[in-house]
Predict the 3D structure of the following.
Amino acid sequence: MKKPNSPINTQNAIVWKYFYALLVFSITSCLKEKTQPRYNERHQIFHNTGKKSGTSFTYTLPLHGSQTSPDTLSSLNAFLNELEKAIKDTFRGGFPDSVEFSSLRRICKLLKEKTKIIEEWSKSNIPEFISACHVVFYPFSGPDLITPISLFPEADTIILVGLEPVGRIPEFRTHSGKITLLIGFSDIVSEMFRLPFFKTKEMDTLLRKKEFTGVMPLLLFTLTLFNLHPSTLEIILIDSAQKTLILNYEEFVLMPPAIKKILKIRGVIIKFIKNSRERVVYYFSENLDNAHLSMNKYFSTFIDRLNGFVFFTKCASYLLHNSNFSTLRNFILERTSAIIQDDTGIPFHFFNDTIKWQIKLYGDYTKPIKPFGGYFQKDLFEAYRNNPDITKLPFHIGYHAQTKKDPIILAIRK
């Protein structure tokens, strides 16, 4: 009878696997190919074309290729099962009735109510081809998965980009570990509800705590909270030659430390089930200014596959107003089929061409908060002032926590 593989044999196989991967990387780099960097066989590019009546809607959709075998899902499934139980216990009072857990219960309920309001507003105000789009590109998102899931409830692919690190699945085995982690979630969710945006410095501090180390636990928490069941978790890594390696999470965990030091973690891919259909979320930890985009060839290659996507952003620190983000801004204006943003996204004057763009305004527009006072847009102010029939927003989405005068600009390519 054949003996089962021992842990030592399994680890040896893993070591040889990554030695081979590095050898391939090295040979490829030495050849100095002049062609564009390719995704490896684990990250095939799937091209498709779709048409929506009345609107040209062509897209190319990047998908990761492989299915995760059941054996590689043990850490993910164990964490999700325990997380789901812990969330239920939190709402049922299974944990101590402390200030932290009372706050977490209250805020999670309010957060669910808010997302329902956003989803209902989207159904009534956003054209179906946008709310049910295939790809949503959301730069400067941080770990905000809640907003795009609410605004684009039928989207197949959501691409998030932020500066926060990817992180890992935290330890969640003991009762005290669950309490510690849920209190951490409470801190972050409380900040999310108090302000509908992530303050980069504060969020970086929260996400670098021992129990988090990055956005991955928060993304999984968000999906679990809304009964969306993650089925696959993969890590995106690059080597010094900008070659991409995509691994199942368990393969990444078993990777020898010497190999981990050579590769950099740049993103995570999470597939989940919603309405009996599989969707996918990408999170990339990237700086999107011109200099970094020119250096990060793997990411530039990834987004270069996108066409006809819906662009969404909010609370983006007015970065797309600046010349050092012109590469990303021009890419969006050339490739997107529709834009939904607040005033911190692409400046309003880029949509003056009424032959190219159809504009619809929602909410209110007022002077930007400090320290962004220099980004006041007179043309946008006039557009709101000259249109008294603009529909107000039933939710708060931007920087104006006090006045709740948040604008939403919908620009559809004609």
